[in-house]
Amino acid sequence: MSIGQRLFQAISDRRNVAGLVGAATGLGLMYGGVIEAGWLAITAGLYGAGFLAVQIAAPPSDFPRLANGGPVTSAADLPDALRRLAGRVGPDLPPAARKHLDSILVTATSIQGRLAEMDAKGIDATPFQQLLAGYVPDTLRAYERVPAALRAKVRGASGKTPDQQIDEQLGLLADQMEKLVEVLAQGDMDAIETQTRFLQARFATAEPFE
Questions:
Q1: For residues 165 and 150, what is the distance between their CA atoms, to the nearest angstrom?
Q2: Do 163 and 126 reside in the same domain of the chain?
Q3: How many domains does the chain have?
Q4: Cα–Cα distance between 25 and 39 in angstroms, integer?
Q5: Please, where are the H alpha helices in the chain?
Q6: Phi, psi of 155 (to 5 degrees)
Q7: What are the beta bridge partners of residue 155?
Q8: Which of 10, 101, 111, 179 is the 20 to 30 A CA-CA neighbour of 41?
Q9: Are 82 and 168 members of one domain?
Q10: How far apart are CA 79 and CA 83, in angstroms?
């Protein structure tokens, strides 16, 4: 992501916008003659209050999204965002699932430079965005919502425990991640499209751990 893109993202952050609204209120009070002494401190305080109010009410997601569900972050930023989420959820995963997650992270990190190149050249990285900002984090967060006491118990019609399901799903995603990297190296866009359709069919209507 370029410096300009990072600057725009920081400025447009909803916490910063709320803070600026608060600061504008302070300036309005000053120019209106309501406050005089200490106006700078009051304005700064109103900015901080707006910023913190939004932070507390709706903290930013690991994976900010556009209104249409697409990721805001560039493709090259996705491995770092996934590592942050994995750092929170990973320790609670069963050992086999944790290995699959580690494999996904290693593979994602190995192509981070290529993703940055795709960003710079405007090359479509949708398959990687869907996997790294959609399917993998969605699976992790769904598992995270299951109470710890129920993760080793059979739930729903699947006849499997959440621990078994997360192992299977992350294993599948790790395999698909490796296949995407292979076809990316070969420049086979048809194969990438095939992998994308497979993931969409497999995860679009999935209701894990129910």
A1: 13
A2: yes
A3: 2
A4: 11
A5: 3-12, 14-31, 39-57, 78-89, 95-110, 112-121, 126-130, 136-145, 162-186, 189-203
A6: -135, 145
A7: 160
A8: 10
A9: yes
A10: 6
